[in-house]
Amino acid sequence: MASNDVQSQISALRDEIAALQKDLGERGAEAYEAVRERVGDAARPAVRSATRYMRNEGAAVAQAAREHPAALSTVVLTAGLAGVLIGYLLGSYESEPRRQRWF
Question: What is the pTM of this model?
């Protein structure tokens, strides 16, 4: 009985995921057509070139991250610490000083 219920829920989820994928595909196609109409034929080579450049740069960054995981973790940790420090400084800055009490 419980197995049947779980299987029916899984089937319902699969149906819902398929419907969402179909909807996203249709929306993506509509967005692509809208952009294609706005961009026109003159800008297509520039768009292709920019797309190719971004793909190559992304692949280079991913390859560097795979080759040097320690460097990647150091960069991420440093950026996180810098974010915490900036957040602390912005949070502690106030227009009027607070009264500090010991009680």
Answer: 0.39
